[in-house]
Design brief:
By secondary structure, the protein is mainly β. The protein has one domain: Roll (SH3 type barrels). 12% of the residues lie in helices and 41% in strands. It has one helix and six strands. The protein has a six-stranded antiparallel β-sheet, with no helix packed on it. The radius of gyration is 12 Å and the shape is globular.
Amino acid sequence: MNPYLTDVVGTNVKVIKHSDPTIVGMEGRIVDERKNILTIETARGERIVPKTSGTLLIGDQEATLERMRLRPEDKMKKTRRKGRR
C-alpha cells in the first residue's frame, strides 16, 4: 500500500518522529484524514496529528507526513492521472 496515493483511513499507525514531542510514540488507528491533519483513535481517545514535519510507520512502511499533505479525494485524482489503478 502506498500511503501517498491511497486512502489510509482504517490503518494502524505509529508516530516515529514529529515536530511536537508529545505526539512521538503514539499508536492507533486512523479514523479521519483531512488535508493538514490526521485523526488517530488511541487507547486514550481520539488525537489530532498535524501533517507537519514528522514520520509515521504504516504497517511496515515509513511515510513522511509532508508528502501526505493532500486531501484524500485529491490522492485518488493523482492516482488516475498517472495511469495507476
